[in-house]
Task: inverse folding
């Protein structure tokens, strides 16, 4: 049985979008694979590690990963449960136009300098709108193309995304903390518990995480929970149950956090994405 399933969601002259799900049965590093085209990959469920040479990247819902055509990589799953991602490829000339010069390798062919960027909540919402809309056949082709270009622009914007800058040692420490958070999104972790899992002091962990990701550890956890909520909204009628299942203390806490991040309450997002009847 294949570990992967791929569902084509959209293919036009401008944009190709695929929904890729991996069951994560293989925990060790895969054989080397090669990207056949340059694309942006948005994890929306679960977590995996992408290994490019000596560079390791934790792939989770707060990140966009860049896969450059012809670049070899390996995948591993340090946490059970597998993962799911949206793979988005756009016309190369348009991608060059959308990408700030400092983020691209001197070409041709076009390729990204970095392995990943942290995206903002609005970009996460665009990923969910695209996936839900195309999966349910409610998004028009033109609408989906424009949403996709908006998502790429936002994912590369200097004000709407963040490129972590840190030594390899500090990045690995932060990545270990991300894996701890991702291992149980609903758990109400304490700082000392996470620090103990990572193997450093609580003070050092908070300082390094803030320096590398430019956001506090607690907010990073909140955004992982909210990204999971975006994924699950189509499966829940009882939004109070969804919030509690994701570790929120109450429906009001869940709803307020969701609206602060995405500009809509969970119920409003459900209606906007046509995930439930009005």
Result:
């Amino acid at each position: 049985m294949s570990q992967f399933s791929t569902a084509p969601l959209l293919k036009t002259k401008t944009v190709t979008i695929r929904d890729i799900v991996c069951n994560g049965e293989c925990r060790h590093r895969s054989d080397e694979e090669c990207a056949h085209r340059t694309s942006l990959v948005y994890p929306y469920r679960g977590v995996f590690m992408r290994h490019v040479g000596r560079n390791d990247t934790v792939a989770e819902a707060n990140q966009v990963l860049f896969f450059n055509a012809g670049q070899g990589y390996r995948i591993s799953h340090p946490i059970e449960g597998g993962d799911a991602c949206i793979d988005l490829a756009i016309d190369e000339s348009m991608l060059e136009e959308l990408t700030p010069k400092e983020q691209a390798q001197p070409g041709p062919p076009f390729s990204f300098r970095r392995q990943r960027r942290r995206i903002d909540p609005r970009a996460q919402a665009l990923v969910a709108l695209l996936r839900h809309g195309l999966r349910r056949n409610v998004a028009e082709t033109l609408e989906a193309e424009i949403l996709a270009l908006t998502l790429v622009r936002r994912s590369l914007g200097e004000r709407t995304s963040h490129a972590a800058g840190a030594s390899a040692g500090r990045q690995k420490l932060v990545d270990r903390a991300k894996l701890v958070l991702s291992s149980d999104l609903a758990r109400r972790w304490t700082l000392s518990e996470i620090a103990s899992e990572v193997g450093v002091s609580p003070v050092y962990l908070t300082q390094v995480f803030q320096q590398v990701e430019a956001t506090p550890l607690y907010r990073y956890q909140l955004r992982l929970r909210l990204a999971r909520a975006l994924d699950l909204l189509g499966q829940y009628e009882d939004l109070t149950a969804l919030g509690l299942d994701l570790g929120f203390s109450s429906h009001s806490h869940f709803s307020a956090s969701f609206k602060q991040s995405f500009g809509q309450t969970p119920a409003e997002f459900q209606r906007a994405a046509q995930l439930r009847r009005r």
Notes: The chain has a mean pLDDT of 93.
